[in-house]
Design goal:
This protein is 11% helix and 38% strand. It is mostly beta strands. Strands 2, 4, 5, 6, 10 and 11 form a six-stranded mixed sheet that branches. A three-stranded antiparallel sheet has the order 1-7-8, with no helix packed on it. The longest helix is centred in the middle third of the chain and has 17 residues, at 46-62. The protein is globular.
């Protein structure tokens, strides 16, 4: 099998948004369990997906990140995974941001091996501005928290 290669969101010409609308047992890329259970999981409708994307885009446009300890990259430079869940009466969205993903090509079968993005939340501890988390409250139509790794 070939060596690891990296795809960067900033050079990606496809869709950067991945909406995880079917419940699976999610985990982080290092194997840690992801905290959303089947009972809490909320499958985002197309309308909710569009709203979450709009709120995220507006947040990145309107926020002065110069006051933050670490400054994020522009939103266009992140792949984005959206996971919906219920928190009381509120519909929340966990948005995972990552600038790149590694994969491995196998020239024998013309295959590409990478983490299953429908199950794996791509995040690295101490990854700096390359990895981030945004929590959106769709009910209140606002970002509740933003952090970088």
């Amino acid at each position: 099998m070939g060596e690891n290669e990296i795809s960067w969101a900033s050079k990606w010409d496809g869709d950067l948004d991945e909406y995880l609308i079917e419940y699976k047992t999610f985990s982080y890329s290092d194997g840690r369990p992801f905290a959303i259970t089947k009972n809490d999981f909320h499958s985002l409708s197309e309308e909710e997906q569009q709203l979450a994307t709009k709120i995220l885009q507006e947040y990145f446009l309107d926020t002065n990140f110069s006051t933050h300890k670490q400054k994020p990259y522009p939103l266009r430079e992140y792949f984005r995974q959206y996971v919906g869940y219920q928190k009381g009466e509120h519909i929340m969205v966990h948005v995972n941001l990552y600038t790149h993903i590694s994969y491995r090509k196998d020239p024998q079968c013309m295959c590409i091996y990478m983490k299953d993005l429908t199950r794996t939340i791509i995040n690295e501890k101490n990854g700096g501005s390359h990895y981030g988390t945004v929590i959106i409250d769709l009910t209140e139509k606002k970002v509740k928290s933003f952090s970088l790794s």
